[in-house]
Amino acid sequence: MSQKRMFVIQEHHAKRLHWDFRLEMDGVLKSWAIPKEPPKNIGIKRLAIQVENHPLSYAKFEGQIPKGEYGAGTIKIWDQGEYELFKEDDKKIEFKLIGKKMSGNYVLLKFKKPKDWLFFKLG
Fold first, then answer.
1. Do the beta carbons of residue 107 and residue 45 sit within 8 Å?
2. b/e per residue, 10-20, with b = 16+ CB within 10 A?
3. Which of 12, 45, 84, 87 could form a disulfide with 120 if both were Cys (CB 3.0 to 4.6 A apart)?
């Protein structure tokens, strides 16, 4: 059994509403921007665009990023909890989320463009 680590999903009201999905990995938060609400049910697939890593402390951030700064807008925590990593390589990350809104087995699967992934629930 693997070690449990934290995850957070932040609802980000910037130029366009999106969700920032973050997994604790290698001492940072690996991060993806998801243009539509994350998939809570089997059969829903979402685009997840990999963005820059964030420090672990960012997992607790809620508030306002001022106008004129990158990502300007309101951020609130949409879900958070722990996850268990099953598999990780350059093309696929398999894990189990244990959160209030998101729970179950999920996959991030590398897609066509270098930073594009598919995010979906397995069960």
1. no
2. bbbeeeeebbb
3. 45
Q: Which two tokens stand for residue 79?
A: 């879900």
Copy the structure tokens of residue 88.
């990780």
Per DSSP, 42 falls in state: T
Q: Is 22 helix (H, G, I), strand (E, B) or coil?
A: strand
Q: What is the pTM of this model?
A: 0.93
Q: What is the dihedral of CA 115, 93, 122, 112, to 10 degrees?
A: 30
Which 3 state secondary structure label does DSSP give 56? helix
Centroid of chain to Cα 110: 14
What is the C-alpha to C-alpha distance for residues 35 and 33, in angstroms, rounded to an integer?
A: 6
* pLDDT tens, position by position, 9-29: 999 999 899 999 999 999 999
80 forms beta bridges with: 8
